[in-house]
Specification:
- About 45% of the residues lie in helices and about 10% in strands.
- By secondary structure, the chain is α+β, with helices and mostly antiparallel strands.
- It is elongated and about 145 Å long.
- About 10% of the residues have low confidence.
Length: about 425
Amino acid sequence: MSTNDNPESAMHRRHSSRSIKRKKFDDELVESSLPLKPNIRKSFEGPEEMETSSPHVEVTPTAEDPADKRMHRQAQELVRKTSVGSGSLTGDKKTVKKKKIKKTRQAFAAAKDMGRWKPTDDILLIDAVMQVQDLTQVHLAVKFSCFFSLEEIQERWYALLYDPVISGLAKQAMKSLPQELARAAHAKALYSKNEEKILAKIFTSSQPTVETFQTVLDQNISVFHHGRTAELLKRHWELMKKYQLIEDQTVQPLPQGDHILNFSDAEDMLDDQEILQQRDDAIAHELKIADRKQKHEIKKLEEEIPRWELLVSSVTGVAKQEMDQHTIAVLRGRLVRYLMRSREITFGRSTEYLTVDIDLSLEGPAYKISRQQGTIKMKNNGDFIITNEGKRPIYVDGKVVMKGGRAKLQHDSVLEIALLRFVFLVNERLASTMK
């Protein structure tokens, strides 16, 4: 039986005319230029896109075509350059970041390895030694962040000079210090002798202002420390004025005729046998009680003295001889006598940043008194006027003077300022000559 006669066998021999598609392997790729186009385009994009693209591209040309081999080498070289360029960009960023982290860690380690010595302490030490050139004065005058003995200051100074490790750590810590803290530390530098000589030449009669000290600072910029300002110079000048260190100020001479007892004379008068005697506790206790009673009586008498003096002076008209030829008036309290030796004085509570002519805190508790409570001024006609510039009221002979108010002071006027009481006494003989 022939196959043509059997229809089932004819169905089995039937097939499609389409070719069967299958995956091609690498050795069967002919068109090697096709995968190069997207890579060439990517090479001209930004660095972020180049990092995301895959740097490994394999192109296998046919062995028969030498042009394909040359194109294959060019593609591989282009891919290698692209990968190297992107790696260098990311490497630079990582290097900069590592340097910043390393610098921060070094600054932290430098401050940590310094122990109790802080960068501000090193600035104070260096400035003070450069100003006064004496470690003993530096130990006595400079206020560090904590207490350092003279030996510790000497060791630190020698270490900064001769120890390269400690000096390097100190320099790095001072460089990393904020500018505000460094500027505040430089402002606390001690004053040298040349600086104080220039300030002593500014007379008190000229009543200098901040502009005056700014002019002096500009004219002597090579003498003054680089951390000085006009405000700091004025504050130090007022401190020198308080201790009578200005050239136009005269210091009162010592009294003549009376022998002044010094320490060596007092030491010679001591009896060593009395010191070496055994102490009797019972007698010491009785003496202590008697001494307490006597001190209590003395205190009561001292409180009554001003009352009796006012009574005697009002009856006799003769004031107490407590003013010399340079004192215009006296503001006398229970403990302290304040002398007025110029036409105008300020009174209040002295602080670190403000000084007044009369510091009322020496008399008693003055926490309620303003830093600049007021002024007392002598006019050309001889009248004394008190002006209240503080928040607290001032009572003059029982009359209240509020802030901004004025009142006339008479001889024996009683002033009350925040629970402190004073008597104002006038040297009428000197005041009459100054009219």
